[in-house]
Design goal:
With about 120 residues, this protein is mainly alpha-helical. Helix content is about 40%, strand content about 5%. The chain is built from 4 helices and 2 strands; from the N terminus they run αααββα.
Length: about 120
């Protein structure tokens, strides 16, 4: 599973570069993912393959970025408890809120939020 996870994260890195690239040169051999593919990677990384060891070191909440094509005035933020076995019905592929989520930005945000960091401070005197 570690190799699969590493492969997915590497592909996500390549996709993120495509999303933020203004050059069309890279797009000749890589195709930008559709929202369904981002949703599937979200499911794999944060819902389906969560182990007990992982859950002890990660935040209990998953956050969702709203799509820019849907107004966000007076609408509550999306978030889900990570311990859920699946996403709520409205966030499933055929759910009513699926198209209201920017799945690419949601995956990238949760990768940042669910990662572990180590800070080293050295005081020189």
């Amino acid at each position: 599973m570690a190799d699969t996870r590493r492969s997915i994260l590497q592909t996500i890195r390549d996709q993120a570069k495509l999303l933020h690239s203004s050059s069309t040169h890279q797009q000749t051999y890589l195709q930008v993912w559709r929202p369904q593919q981002w949703w599937e990677s979200f499911q794999f990384l944060f819902i389906n393959h969560l182990t007990a060891a992982d859950s002890a070191h990660h935040d209990d909440l998953l956050f969702f970025v709203k799509s820019p094509s849907y107004p966000t005035v007076n609408s509550p933020p999306f978030f889900v408890r990570r311990k859920a076995k699946q996403l709520p019905e409205e966030l499933q592929l055929s759910g009513s809120q699926f198209s209201h989520v920017d799945w690419a930005q949601t995956v990238l945000l949760n990768i940042v939020l669910q990662s572990q960091y180590q800070l080293t401070v050295v005081a020189c005197g």
